[in-house]
Amino acid sequence: MSITKDTLNKHLKDPAIFCCRRDKGTVIGAADLEDPTLFDDMVDAGLLTLSEDGLTIEQVLGSTLLTDVEALMPITASVLDKVNDAAGVPRQEKAREEASAAEAVIASSASGGNGMIHVKIDKLEGLSLDIPVGTSLGSVIHGTASAAPAGQKKIIRTLLKKHIKITDVEISNKTAIENGKIFIDGDIVKKAVGEDALCISMALDVIYPDKRHVYTDTIMDVCPIATKVEGELGEGVTKVVDGVVFMLTGVDEDGVQIHEFGSSEGYLDEKMYFGHPGCADEGDIIIRCHAVIKRLTGMSRPGPFAAHTCEDFIIQAVRDELKKYEGTVIREERCEDLRRKGNPRIVLVKEIMGQGAMHDNVLCPIEPCGVAGGQKNVDLGNVPIVLTPNQVRDGSIHALTCIGPATKEMTRHYIREPLVEGLAQDEELDLIGVIFVGSPQVNDEKLWVSERLGSLLESLDIDGCIITTEGFGNNHIDFIQHIGQAGKRGIPVVGVSFCAYQGQLVVGNPYADAMVEENMDKGGFENDVAGCSCVTKEVAIRAIQMLKNKMAGVAVLPALKKWNNDVINENNALVGLPDMELLDNGTLH
């Protein structure tokens, strides 16, 4: 990263290092020099070795290069037409006749199949280095001793998720788990409604994978069954049920669906995008929990929250049985919070709903994906909250939002968020955290919260970020503000959102130049299919690659004036993904 004139004046006595490749005849100025504040990290990462023969910034300003010079190479007298006098620094009259035997210039590089660039050194027999893709090459390596390699893992904490297979569910006269089957006491709903006075009644039934052509009221949430058996959220051991999920539906006393921008009542097999991160998978058994709340409370925070609270009471009874159940573990998922020192420092920013009407989320409950013990982001002022990747993957978010079904990220989405998984596992990046920031209703509050996010991004000293948002319209105002807060601080940023036709951005700024589309509806609309147009694995792959390109200075072509899915398919082809299959008028195939 080249430096400004102001930065240059503060570092005249520091070593002069080229930030990028420079050609013969270049007259050296601030734009040619690397920021000295980055040298320590570069040295630690093995990307830079300072030379005793290297000159200082004040000695090289205005000098002309006599030969082509590569990036991150200390500037010595041998490549300059002149050296400026500097107080206390002896003037070097001529270059050394021959280089030290330990000095070697990188001669060739090639991309390897492991996502690294393999570099061979000519003059040091047998020495080779592996450097992350996107790293500037061409630095001079001095000495035979090398620093710790970039990307070396330092594990901070570990989370083990044990997936327990469940093959059947029965509404019964007891709550238990036996031989791979969940039993739920049918009378538990009478106790559950006592958890919140706004909940009038609840009902439970079981929907099997081959019986999904059944009418359902609007889908408020899909929640996995998971429980802590050791440690707190983000560490220790968590049991997760595979094969069964809870689905919350709801209406008020007058039969009005609990929804905001569109609702998903209808035949279940047509109203959920099975297999997407927030949804039930193709073979899942669904425990439907239907809530009826007091009239006229569906469009305020307390009403939907009452339905979630009462459902959580039922799920907790199953969690308590899961803690004791020693069933077959069909797979173990090892998740690590770690640092990859020397790799680009990245954060994921998740903008979540916080308009304060029915829009809310519960952060950091006691149990994975639970409600009890958590705090609502609206009550916290929607300010940015930093979680570790493991905390997100351990169910630290319970979704309460009632936005349009297709763009809603339900509770199950967060425990297996594709961007968290992709960034955490990418060996070329250092994911330092996941930031959740609410979207207030009032514009002045939006700006205030976004400024707090900007200050946080700056203090974290990151090299890049991805910013996502669920829904569209009102929260796009915050979304673009967040991108601007990163961009004006020189942080490469990629935005991820549903826009397409219906959700086209109505605001923008110069930094919103790398955007990834989530839409999966053929017409580009919110199609009322739950979990359809959200972050998927394919979206995450495109977003991560776009961020890498942007950090490396690779040009991101401007978007077309109107949404065109051919652009998405071309990008998918570039990263080895198949074409995206869109829903035709909201109809699942």
Topology of helices and strands:
Layout: H1 5-10, H2 39-44, H3 57-60, E1 104-111, E2 116-121, E3 128-132, E4 140-141, E5 152-165, E6 168-172, E7 176-178, E8 181-185, H4 188-192, E9 199-207, E10 215-216, E11 219-230, E12 236-252, E13 266-267, H5 268-271, E14 285-293, H6 302-324, E15 329-341, E16 345-353, E17 361-363, E18 375-376, E19 385-387, H7 389-393, E20 397-399, H8 411-415, H9 418-425, E21 430-439, H10 443-459, E22 464-469, H11 474-487, E23 493-497, E24 515-517, H12 537-551, H13 565-574
Parallel strand pairs: 5-12, 6-8, 12-14, 16-21, 16-22, 22-23, 23-24
Antiparallel strand pairs: 1-2, 1-4, 2-3, 5-15, 7-8, 9-14, 10-13, 11-12, 17-18, 17-20, 19-21
Helix pairs in contact: 9-12, 10-11
Organism: Megasphaera cerevisiae DSM 20462
GO molecular function: D-proline reductase activity
Pfam families: Gly_reductase
Question: How would you explain this protein's 3D organization?
Answer:
- InterPro entries: Asparaginase/glutaminase-like (IPR006034), D_pro_red_PrdA (IPR031002), Gly_reductase_pB_sua/b (IPR015417).
- By secondary structure, this protein is α/β, with parallel strands linked by helices.
- The protein has 2 domains: 1-150, no CATH class; 159-574, no CATH class.
- 21% of the residues lie in helices and 26% in strands.
- The chain has helices at 5-10, 39-44, 57-60, 188-192, 268-271, 302-324, 389-393, 411-415, 418-425, 443-459, 474-487, 537-551, 565-574, and strands at residues 104-111, 116-121, 128-132, 140-141, 152-165, 168-172, 176-178, 181-185, 199-207, 215-216, 219-230, 236-252, 266-267, 285-293, 329-341, 345-353, 361-363, 375-376, 385-387, 397-399, 430-439, 464-469, 493-497, 515-517.
- Strands 5, 9, 11, 12, 14 and 15 form a 6-stranded mixed β-sheet that branches. Strands 19-21-16-22-23-24 form a 6-stranded mixed β-sheet, sandwiched between helices.
- Residues 87-146 have low confidence and may be disordered.
